[in-house]
């Protein structure tokens, strides 16, 4: 897929300085640019690279003025970073511009799908599935019975959606993600053995939810595990049965949330956080990476540690903790002077 400087300038409403017919077919960092690549300059510390870059086209701000000879064609825009991001989105959409049903694949006769849909090879779609318009389902995906998928959603290769789950509009589910596997429900019997508790609920993803690769979201025992509008989950996250995550919350990789916990809106949760079950985390909460949360958390708290407590108190305590050997020596010296201990 090739674009000329003129085509890119039209997309970005930019001005060309150089050859309008030069073509690019790939993206690069400015310091790693090669012939046929497109790059950008937004951070001033990378400015020296523009005089040596081999990239064919470079997006720059309108205020940029070359101080010596450059070989790259410039496209001047109001904001280089935002324009490059816009171009990335355009490029990504162009790559995803697939349509039709590839073979071999299986689609149950009772299932329906809308217009401009792409269903990749070796995909299985069960009974009574309803798929909206412009949905992209990449190869080797599994869609169980009675699943609903809203318009413009994307399921990358190998995604698995179990029966009865609901995927909203404009969602992205990355490769290896599993939506709707059984929750971890077992009850001990009189013999000390564990009997499985049937998991009869489902998972609901509202609109504009992103699910990272190899992330798992378990179906509810009863009712629904709910991921609210705009939530963003990183790779390799475990969300247990009957959890609810409020809108626009973001969670980094390798975090685990135990069953029936409620997480509020607009929370920011770092990587490798462990959250116990049956607790409530308020709105606008910030949890630092590798924290262990075993209690309810009020709105607007920032916490850290394991068990987690106030972020400010944690930082103060850590200053003392890392100096603990020195502090103990000083305490021992004082003890000898006061008590005459030898």
UniProtKB/TrEMBL annotation:
Xref: SUPFAM superfamilies: Trimeric LpxA-like enzymes
Catalysis: reaction(s): a UDP-3-O-[(3R)-3-hydroxyacyl]-alpha-D-glucosamine + a (3R)-hydroxyacyl-[ACP] = a UDP-2-N,3-O-bis[(3R)-3-hydroxyacyl]-alpha-D-glucosamine + holo-[ACP] + H(+)
Keywords assigned: Acyltransferase, Lipid A biosynthesis, Lipid biosynthesis, Lipid metabolism, Repeat, Transferase
Record GO terms (molecular function): N-acyltransferase activity; UDP-3-O-[(3R)-3-hydroxyacyl]-glucosamine N-acyltransferase activity
Gene Ontology cellular component terms for the protein in this record: membrane
Domain UDP-3-O-[3-hydroxymyristoyl] glucosamine N-acyltransferase non-repeat region: from-to ranges: 21-89
BP-aspect Gene Ontology terms: lipid A biosynthetic process
EC code(s) of this entry: 2.3.1.191
Listed pathway(s): Bacterial outer membrane biogenesis; LPS lipid A biosynthesis
Active site (UniProt): 241
Subunit details: Homotrimer.
Cross-referenced PANTHER family: UDP-3-O-ACYLGLUCOSAMINE N-ACYLTRANSFERASE, UDP-3-O-ACYLGLUCOSAMINE N-ACYLTRANSFERASE 1, MITOCHONDRIAL-RELATED
Record's function text: Catalyzes the N-acylation of UDP-3-O-acylglucosamine using 3-hydroxyacyl-ACP as the acyl donor. Is involved in the biosynthesis of lipid A, a phosphorylated glycolipid that anchors the lipopolysaccharide to the outer membrane of the cell.
Assigned protein family: Belongs to the transferase hexapeptide repeat family. LpxD subfamily.
HAMAP family to which the protein is assigned, alphabetical: LpxD (MF_00523)
Name of the featured protein: UDP-3-O-acylglucosamine N-acyltransferase
Native species: Gelidibacter sediminis
């Amino acid at each position: 897929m090739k674009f000329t400087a003129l085509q890119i300038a039209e997309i970005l409403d930019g001005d060309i300085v150089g050859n309008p017919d030069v073509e690019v077919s790939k993206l690069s960092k400015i310091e790693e640019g090669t012939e046929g690549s497109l790059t950008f300059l937004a951070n001033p510390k990378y400015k020296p690279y523009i005089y040596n870059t081999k990239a064919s086209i470079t997006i720059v701000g309108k205020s940029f003025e070359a101080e010596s000879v450059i070989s790259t064609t410039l496209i001047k825009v109001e904001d280089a970073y935002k324009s490059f991001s816009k171009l990335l989105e355009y490029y990504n959409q162009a790559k995803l511009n697939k349509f039709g049903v590839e073979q071999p694949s299986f689609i149950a006769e009772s299932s329906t799908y809308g217009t401009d849909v792409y269903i990749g090879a070796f995909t299985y779609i069960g009974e009574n599935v309803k798929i909206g318009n412009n949905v992209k389902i990449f190869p080797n995906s599994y869609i169980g019975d009675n699943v609903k998928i809203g318009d413009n959603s994307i399921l990358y290769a190998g995604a698995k959606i179990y029966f009865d789950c609901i995927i909203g509009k404009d969602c992205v589910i990355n490769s290896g993600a599993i939506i709707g596997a059984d929750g971890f429900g077992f009850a001990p019997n009189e013999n000390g053995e564990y009997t499985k508790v049937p998991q009869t609920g489902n998972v609901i993803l509202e609109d504009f939810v992103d699910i990272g690769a190899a992330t798992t979201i378990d179906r509810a025992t009863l009712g629904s595990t709910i991921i609210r509008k705009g939530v963003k989950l990183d790779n390799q996250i475990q969300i247990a049965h009957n959890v609810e995550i409020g809108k626009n919350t973001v969670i980094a990789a390798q975090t685990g949330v135990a069953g029936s916990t409620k997480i509020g809106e607009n929370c920011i949760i770092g990587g490798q956080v462990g959250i116990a079950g049956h607790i409530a985390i308020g709105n606008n909460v910030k949890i630092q990476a590798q924290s262990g949360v075993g209690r309810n958390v009020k709105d607007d708290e920032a916490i850290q540690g394991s068990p987690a407590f106030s972020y400010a108190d944690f930082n103060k305590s850590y200053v003392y903790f890392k100096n603990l050997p020195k502090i103990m020596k000083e305490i021992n010296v004082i003890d000898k002077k006061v008590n005459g201990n030898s």
